[in-house]
Amino acid sequence: MTSALHRTIPGARTAPRLAAPLAALVTATLALAGCTADGGATETAADGANLTVPAPEGLDGMPAPVPPGPEPTGPDEEYDDSPETPFQDVATSPLSTFSADVDTASYSNLRRQVNQGVVPEGVRIEELVNYFDYDYPAPEPGAEHPFSVSTEVAAAPWNPEHQLAMVGVQATEAVPTSEGNNIVFLLDVSGSMDEPNKLPLLAESFALLVEQLDDDDRVSIVTYAGDNQVVADSVPGSEHGVLVDHLRSLRAGGSTGGADGLRTAYELAEKNFVEGGNNRVVLATDGDFNVGPSSPEELTELVEAERESGVYVSVLGFGMYNLKDNTMEAIADHGNGNYAYIDTLAEARKVLVDEFGSTMFVVAKDLKLQVELNPATVGSYRLIGYDNRRLEDEDFADDTKDAGDVGAGHSVTAFYELVPAGTDPDGDADDDDGDLKYTDREVGTSDDFMTVHVRYKAPGAGDPGSSTEVEFPVGADAFTTAPTADFAFASAVAELGLIATGSEYRADASLDAVRERATSALGADPYGLRAEFVDLVAAYRGLA
């Protein structure tokens, strides 16, 4: 039996979010321009910082290209480009283990770079793919586990002799707590933030977040430059005007002592800790720390020491020219958090409004995946992306090993490129793999492609805590000659990633194929993000 979408746990996903009303977008854009909807003047972040801010989005919600300037990325932007992993022989390496990744910064940063007219740097393919929503079935209400797993296998678009397996993990939409939010805004106001697309955009972005809060929530604000300052301490979330006034009064100047700011933010979050609630530091910066501990290694050591407190961290990146992507990603990954890059007010709305629950509320902690490939069906394989998320196979069962945290409504997608069994020379089986499901399988004796093992902890589990493992076999019925629209679109995004990274394994990947397949798989696209991707591919062609 052939199935277009192999759904290991059935269930209907909740209705997609409604698009933000046009009037709200117009109002937000006018606010940045210093006007109200009726034409009157209003104080904006631009007024407070004495900066001029161009509207960061058009009326259709599409981000407007940033006018190119001298050295758009320049020598001061820093990225951690991990080498891609080659194909692995299933006979000798049957396991692939990695940490879940829900970061999306790489896609919006790529969009910014392409719109500037420069070749993208720091491209992480999994973050391109995970930027988009897919129609995976969510777990039923009251399900034993807070996620479902969907799988689909088809011919690899860029290499028809290979197969492409898509593994999708969909978290429940249900927020795991009815307690309030205890949020500390940790805001970089150093001199490097003195740009229109940094501090002013930051202020208006956090104003959008404030509008989502109410009287059950508490907000503190810490700013840092040469030193750090507590601007607000445990203000009720319902006091929108007070909080927005604080945000719009911010001014940039001075050096960047981010480590001291982090310590102060954690102290405030712990002082105001809400048992059973969402306790989180939201760091907004360009990552350009230059006073005190400033390397990714020093900062990750700091946040690793603090994460046992139960305080999570989200990192929002802003700006260009001196963006320190590697530092911000490291803080988020080691601080039980997520990382997004804000290039427009529309992106801020996506992350802080439309995806508020998934950004703020963790439903599965330290989520790891371990895929066991079946040598009877698969000769060799390659996990696409996740190059700095790989784990040792023994780390899967090690509850002291930190991994990604998945928020309410988040989805995680991974692609495996598979070479069918019999295509590669036979390898010698590993005699130490007696516990593996497919150890004694020979070509043609089993039709499973693989088994996906997922291990996670409940959100309230302490460190190291106790994890739960769930197993999802991927049988022959996962294969289809008519892939779903989600498979077609997500694979087009992955193919662009292969091209943008100059992957050794891109084979026949082409921008024409990417655009054609993505165009045919737009679906409902309520926010126009898939259509925007098609336009981005056209813009990328100009760079190529």
Please provide a written account of the structure.
There is one protein chain. Helix 5 packs antiparallel against helix 6. With 544 residues, the protein is of the alpha+beta class. The chain has 14 helices and 17 strands. The protein starts with 5 loop residues before the first strand and ends with a helix. The radius of gyration is 23 Å and the shape is globular. This is von Willebrand factor type A domain-containing protein. Keywords: Signal. It holds the Pfam family YfbK_C.
Basic shape: globular
Radius of gyration: 23 Å
Strand content: 15-25%
Mean pLDDT: 84
Structural class of the helices, strands and pairings? alpha+beta
Which residues form runs of ≥5 with pLDDT under 50? 1-73, 424-432
Distance separating the two termini: 43 Å
Spatial strand sequence of the major β-sheet: 1-4-5-15-13-2
**Helix proportion:** 25-40%
Major sheet size, sense and barrel closure: 6 strands, antiparallel
Given the structure, what is the number of helices? Answer: 14
In total, the number of strands is: 17
Task: Outline the secondary-structure elements.
Elements: E1 6-7, H1 22-33, H2 45-49, E2 88-89, E3 95-99, H3 105-116, H4 125-130, E4 147-156, E5 159-171, E6 181-188, H5 199-210, E7 218-224, E8 228-236, H6 240-248, H7 258-271, E9 278-285, H8 296-306, E10 312-318, H9 325-334, E11 338-342, H10 345-354, H11 356-360, E12 362-373, E13 378-384, E14 404-407, E15 411-420, E16 450-457, E17 468-474, H12 485-500, H13 511-519, H14 529-543
Parallel strand pairs: 6-7, 6-9, 9-10, 10-11
Antiparallel strand pairs: 1-4, 2-13, 3-12, 4-5, 5-15, 7-8, 12-14, 12-16, 13-15, 16-17
Helix pairs in contact: 5-6, 5-10, 7-8, 8-9, 12-13, 13-14
